[in-house]
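[audit] Reproducing an earlier prediction to check determinism. Same input, same settings, fresh worker. If the tokens differ from the archived copy the diff job will pick it up downstream; this log only records the rerun itself.
[audit] input (301 residues):
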Amino acid sequence: MIDLKKLHFFVAIAEGMHLSRAAEALNISQSALSRQIQSLEDELGFRLFDRIGKRLSLTAEGEDLLPRAARLLEQANALSVRGKSIVNGEVGHLRVGATAQTIASLIAPALTGFRAENPGIEITLAEGPNRSLIEMVERGTVHMAIATPSDPADFGSAPLFVARLLAYLPPKDSRREQAQLPLEALADAPVLLLRRGFMTRDLVDESFRKAGIRPRIVLESDSPHALVAMVAQGHGIAMLSSAASKGIHNFSPIPLTLSGAAISRQVSAIWNPTRHRPAALPRLVRTLAAMAHTWPTAGRG
């Protein structure tokens, strides 16, 4: 493979056709520069210059090589500049995972400001339930996910918001006016839940186990809107997180409690500490945290 440094010497000489001036500009002795050019000619298998006394002229082969060498050096320089920009977090590509609810309520509005301040950063989103997001982080499919791992010590993390468990009650349910609803009161109620794998469903299942209740499940769905549509028709009580509630405007949910305490779970930005973390990632995490901090208390917890 040709040494780019030797190509740089060749182009420098060819631009001025003067060996001593090129050596001075390159801060190298004339004899050393001559040896570098001779070495390059040996590698290529042809002469680059005709030497007539102290004058130089390009050979036909040298003329053919010059524009290509100049373009290659420009590309190498551009690559070097790009590399420095990547290290500084000015350009690059971030892959981020989240649930559909979190994308809609948090990531979508946060990206508006982030992209305006970081136009060189490309962001790709991956959607999935909590368990799938954790697997994506473990495999390196995404650089970061917004999720709740069962063992936070296995990941690098930054807290974003606390998700509270909320109940959506049918229009004719008299308990809709209450400030909160004990989970214990739902022992015989038809409930509408997200599928297993979502953080909210894990929290619901754990809470029912603690209460010693076996829930009567009417529907399991990937869609919070489908659950709330069932509630609107009086088919049961939906249980969703406060993060999901930001995208549902036709219902006022009630916080659920267990033994008198709010039911909640911390949601964080998580990443795999054993894998590469792009320089721009901390800035995105700070942007997401700032956006989550603007949520009303009901939305955060």
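[audit] rerun output stored. Observation attached for the diff report: Residues 4-87 form a domain with the Arc Repressor Mutant, subunit A fold (CATH 1.10.10.10).
[audit] end
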